Description:
The chain has 352 residues and is an alpha/beta fold. Helices cover 22% and strands 28% of the residues.
Amino acid sequence: xxxxxxxxxxxxxxxxxxxxxxxxxxxxxxxxxxxxxxxxxxxxxxxxxxxxxxxxxxxxxxxxxxxxxxxxxxxxxxxxxxxxxxxxxxxxxxxxxxxxxxxxxxxxxxxxxxxxxxxxxxxxxxxxxxxxxxxxxxxxxxxxxxxxxxxxxxxxxxxxxxxxxxxxxxxxxxxxxxxxxxxxxxxxxxxxxxxxxxxxxxxxxxxxxxxxxxxxxxxxxxxxxxxxxxxxxxxxxxxxxxxxxxxxxxxxxxxxxxxxxxxxxxxxxxxxxxxxxxxxxxxxxxxxxxxxxxxxxxxxxxxxxxxxxxxxxxxxxxxxxxxxxxxxxxxxxxxxxxxxxxxxxxxxxxxx
Length: 352
């Protein structure tokens, strides 16, 4: 299946919409569809660089067997089909951005801000953040804190920032290999370090990277990082040790460390919501939180009998959308319709 393309909004802008969805996993994406059927516009914020949440990041090729009427589907395929389904509603994506603050406006609406300076005004917030924000796993290297966000990074937020840099990429997964390939054309020099000669990335990408290594265009080091060298937050070289004990320095002015991701509740914990075991308490009528006009669906939602299943999140998305309608259109009456018989809904879904 062809991967659906997503146009990402430029960070730092000011926006206005009907509902801001925090989290671009399956539940957040399906919420776009349910809200769209009701004529509600959406913006989606996610810390990852692509939609799909855990499905895309942790198990893109793993088979999911409990999506109704679909015998088997991979996480990547499910993401692609959800993106295709919501395309007619033209959601706006703010990827590679973390929701860091939420403030109430004088008119009762919300202003959500991200770590990239983006602000979005909306009458409704929907938290669909799964188990929380994906946070990078930091390597246990002494002194790394003093270089972070200055010359050592755990993600690529703006590709052009790394133009003409001498980059060392540490890691053996898809992120390490993909960014080695993507940054190679614009960087001054790209080197990759991994503790094993084998990589856990897509085979085609690994072959492309190894071809560049063979051509002398990318350096590959099978070694462990021993020490970081530099001053005032600027890395200058990394001391590494090979398996046979040989020690050497690799010159660089930038390091990208891709050692995997972990899940944390993140700034959502500061939104003033009632929390139970790091999950957000909701009602089961509208999936509204303790704060009016803020809703929560998916794995982060907590209520009696909750099952952490994608299909449960789809059900929650539908009820949340009906609850959100009354905040977005306070003067309108919601008329329940079936997509099988409502011509207007069919036209919305088929238009693109």
